[in-house]
Design goal:
7-stranded mixed sheet, Aspartate Aminotransferase, domain 2, Aspartate Aminotransferase, domain 1, binds pyridoxal-5'-phosphate, 17 strands
């Protein structure tokens, strides 16, 4: 009998806009922890977490309970009325980070759109009408809307979609002199926006000295420091947010992905300097602050406490050391459980990993691992065994007979 997935693939091809290059695998049967079940019952070990979303694994039961309780009570109110879950989540986010206010949207791109609007309005009000430019880094990734694409410092995403909103320019990561030159050449700059660890750009952690230079230049020039924590945030790098490890106090930071634990949410957090920059009618989103998404996110955030984050660092240490010892793996990059592996052919390794029933991602020329944060030592060892076979298989495949 033909597997169900072949007809699913055909229906997908017929009805879904083909924007994603999918792996030939349907995951419709649920899962538990780091394992997802395929239709034939095979368990796949998930080292991608739905691209850093499933913080506590597949449909984590504790998170699901919080979500179900809220969905049964009230799924949506609109932002015309007060509701409890978004306020509770904003309080907790601000209490944990020292930020002052939160705007909720539904995705990372939407959170970054908000940050861009805040920076521009602050620039106009604080420094004059010409002050609206935003500096971002080459190889950055900030989203797929037109403004966040313009902010994204990778030409590959820009082809076909111009013209873009003006007011963005880019400088190479980890080049302090170029940073200063770029800022000198753009006196109308209101903000610098960057990821502490570039995710889509190749799992590349910025040098602490470069981040300190950004902070120093922002202070010196009276411009906003904005950090994109969409991928790095919510415990992924071993602290609640990656900027903590760089000793930063951002004026604005954005997050999404793992905050929702499986449901869409985006958040733009505002510090003291930009508190109340957004007034009534200045921004909005029908589903922003949705009670169900916020109830789930609050559950995630409360469980990302310091003792748990310490275990994330331990897991990361174990996984990184073991990955570095795999024959065929070069440098191990990134931070915490946001891991890049230098290999000869990342795509070939990802395909070979699938044959080993291990789900991994790629980012540029690296294999990218973003496992659930509550991975067990046994799951780490299982994943390393599968990955070892996959790397060997990928290098074997390219050898001539
Ligand atoms: C750093 C960063 N910013 C923004 C985004 C966009 O997030 P979303 O896909 O939720 O819009 C991503 C997505 O990968 C990201 O990694």
């Amino acid at each position: 009998m033909e597997p169900h997935s072949s007809s699913l693939f055909e229906r997908d091809a017929a009805w879904i806009a083909p924007t994603y290059s999918r792996f030939p695998l349907a995951l419709c049967e649920g899962g538990h922890g780091a394992y997802l079940k395929a239709e034939d019952g095979t368990l796949y070990l998930d080292f991608g977490s739905g691209i850093a979303v499933n913080t506590f694994g597949a449909s984590d039961p504790v998170w699901a309970e919080a979500v179900i309780a809220q969905v049964k009570k009230l799924a949506h109110t609109s932002n015309l009325y007060y509701s409890e879950p978004d306020v509770a989540l904003a309080e907790e986010l601000c209490r944990r980070t020292g930020m002052k206010q939160v705007f909720f949207g539904n995705s990372g791109a939407e959170a970054n759109e908000c940050a861009i609007k805040v920076a521009r309005k602050w620039g106009h009000e604080h420094k004059g009408p010409g002050c609206h430019e935003i500096l971002t880094l080459e190889q950055s990734f900030h989203g797929r809307t037109l403004a966040t694409l313009a902010a994204t410092g990778q030409a590959v995403f820009h082809t076909d979609f111009g013209p873009f909103p003006a007011g963005f320019y880019h400088t190479p990561a980890d080049d302090e002199e170029a940073l200063i030159r770029a800022l000198d050449a753009h006196p109308g700059t209101c903000a610098v926006l960057f990821e502490c660890v570039q995710g889509e750009g190749g799992v590349r952690a910025l040098a602490p000295s470069f981040v300190r230079a950004i902070e120093r230049e922002c202070k010196r020039r009276d411009i906003l420091l904005m950090v994109d924590e969409v991928q790095t945030g919510n415990g992924r790098t071993g602290t609640l947010y990656a900027f903590e490890q760089y000793g930063l106090s951002p004026d604005v930071f954005t997050t999404a992905k793992g905050l929702g634990g499986g449901l869409p949410i985006g958040a733009c957090l505002l510090g003291e300097r930009v508190r109340n920059v957004l007034g009534p009618g200045k921004h909005g989103s029908t589903f922003g602050g949705n009670p169900v998404a916020c109830a789930g996110a609050l559950n995630i955030l409360q469980r990302l406490d310091e003792p748990f984050l310490a275990t994330v660092r331990e897991r990361a240490d174990r996984l990184r050391k073991k990955a570095a010892a795999i024959p065929g793996v070069g440098a191990v990059t990134g931070l915490g459980l946001m891991i890049g592996l230098e290999v000869e052919n990342a795509r070939a390794v990802a395909n070979a990993a699938l044959e080993e029933h291990l789900l991994v991602l790629t980012a540029k020329d690296k294999v990218r691992l973003l496992p659930p944060l509550n991975l067990t030592p046994e799951e780490i060892d299982d994943g390393i065994a599968r990955l070892t076979r996959a790397v060997a298989k990928a290098s074997q495949a390219k050898k001539p007979d």
